User: Fold this.
Amino acid sequence: MKILQINKTDIGGGAAVAAKRLNSALLSNGYDSKLLVQDARSSEGGVYPVDSSVFSKQLSHFHKSKEHLSFIPYERNAIARKSFSCASQGIDISDHPLVKEADILHLHWINDGFLSLKTLGKLFALGKPVVWTQHDMWSFTGGCHFAGTCLEFLEFCSYCPFLRKSGKKDLSARLFAQKRKIYGDSNLSIVTCSKWLRTLSQESKLLRRKDFYNIPNPIDTDLYKPGNKEKARLNLGLPTNKKLILFGADDLNDPRKGFRYLIEALSILGENFPAILDSTELVSFGKINKQIVKHLPFKLHSFKYVVDPQKLVDIYNAADCYVLPSLQDNLPNTIMESMACGTPVVGFSIGGVPEMVTHNESGYLAEVKNSLSLATGIYHTLFVGDISQLENNARMSAVSQFAEKTVVDQYVEVYKSLLKRKTI
Assistant:
């Protein structure tokens, strides 16, 4: 059984992390899996670029730029530019040797000028079983990655809130119709990491007739594990005598990440418990606007983008709690990583977060868009709750749900069933 994972890149973003981890987990458990990417940024085994030539890299940049530029006339604002993909540009991998030899094609995140809708159609036309792990909502919408409160995708996308000129026959409607034609009778099965996304996807007009499986992303719980907090802090140059609140994301400037609510929650804490201003500090990773930092009431230690997994493990181990203020999310890798390291999580009760965090047992679930509730969760975790019990529960929950072998077994069962169905 030859499995081909397909993702835009092998580093950068939650989908890349998930695809690479799944590929590595399959390999380490004795299965023939390869990860085909447009942009290979690591030299790890099992990762294969579509084409490593200089021309190919230039072509990749061209498709990405053209994809973004093509949407500018339609976008409502600059925020929409990162939240909507037309998939009008891309490369044709349907004739690639790894695609040809594969028994199973496993799609992950294929936007940003990697695969166009036309290419998707060609892959489906090969007749091979295709598994698509959803890392966002794009596969069943007219172009947006997260729909917010919009539910047009349940029947037929139109009047899109991300578009400057929305209407019954707007860009989202045209893309929705194109996807509907491409998906058709394709041999496509859907994997959702969270039950939340599965519910939305199953009810969507585009995918409601497809087969669905609910499988979380895997994590190496032998790497992401509890360590000595003082040692981790010394390694990172962090204070050993403070409470440390950790937060992070690929882009903290994205409104969907809800960073404004974290700022408000921290301000509430500082105003109501001034004594903790000197005993508590912040730690972050990811892209963050320097202007926003000025509004933080606590001292911040920013690590920006962290590529080294061991450094990331140290960061989680150094923290007393991890805060995720996202307003809409699937099954965040950061929560999984934090819990595996035994660091309790505080976040809004949205998307797949309640499937990962058990309130007052492995973390704290705050009321959505309620800064006071988020502040309460942070304070309770740091100063009221039994931190040792929270840490132990977080670790045990991560191991039982997300350990590599547990996830691999579920995926292999799906692969085998699809191949068996094909031969009948």
Notes: The longest strand covers residues 243-251. The chain has a mean pLDDT of 93. The domain at 229-402 is CATH 3.40.50.2000 (Rossmann fold).
